[in-house]
Amino acid sequence: MIQESTAPNLMFSHMGFACSDLAKMEDFYTRVLGFTVTDHGEFGGMRLIFMSRDPLEHHQLVLVSGRPDNLPPNPYHPQFGSLINQISFRVASLQALRELLGTLQRENAQSILVGNHGIAWSIYCHDPDGNNLEFFVDTPWYFPQPFLEPLDLSQPDDVIIAQTREMAQLRPGYLPYADWRSRVAQRMARYVPAQPVPV
To answer: Where are the CATH 3.10.180.10 domain residues in the chain?
Structure first.
């Protein structure tokens, strides 16, 4: 039985984070990752750059001045940030993921890690401020997370897909992702996603 909740209807929209070098960050997110600057200005002594990849969203990211110097590294793993664990972006296909890997390598992006989560194929790297970014493609399979093993994107799609399917089906808790989503949707049924107000 689903319990009633007093939580508001929410749909995640955007995030902002403090930066040490706004010019470098703007260049990386626009030139390398394809974001468009939609607005910029100053407020409360901070400089802000709003950017989006979706014309329905005024901004998906906000770059803000004011990141403190000498933040300590994550004490458990240097790939992941001490404040922001990761910022993740969905990619359309394995081929698009390969092409992005080439771009990141040409741009000399730091801390590139290519991995297979079973539920997703991912590339991780750091942006110019050292924030950990993830670019991923969903797979059709689910099993309990966290899980990560190395992924060789030089292999053809059919090999990666077959290896991942076999690995996923052998893991405890395996489900086709559609079945897992149906189960989770029942748990979330008390919430209806917020919709934009029509004008």
So the answer is: 14-68
Instruction: Write out the two tokens for 178.
Output: 């559609």
Report the distance separating Cα 96 and Cα 46, nearest Å: 35
Give the CATH number of domain 14-68.
Answer: 3.10.180.10
| Residue spans of alpha helices (H) in 68-156 | 94-106
Phi, psi (deg, nearest 5) at residue 168? -65, -45
Beta strands of the chain (E only): which ranges? Answer: 15-19, 36-43, 46-52, 61-65, 87-90, 110-116, 120-126, 132-138, 141-142, 149-150, 175-176
pLDDT tens digits, residue range 140-161?
A: 999 999 999 999 999 999 999 9
Nearest CA-CA partner of 33 in 113, 79, 96: 96
According to CATH, what is the number of the domain 80-192? 3.30.720.110
CATH 3.30.720.110 domain position(s) in the chain: 80-192
- Omega into 146 within 30° of 0, i.e. cis? yes
| Nearest Cα to Cα of residue 81 among 129, 12, 25, 146 | 129
Residue 50 and residue 60: Cα distance in Å, rounded? 8
Residue 46 falls in which region: left (phi positive, over 0), alpha (psi -120 to 50) or beta: beta
**Can you give the pTM of this predicted structure?**
0.85
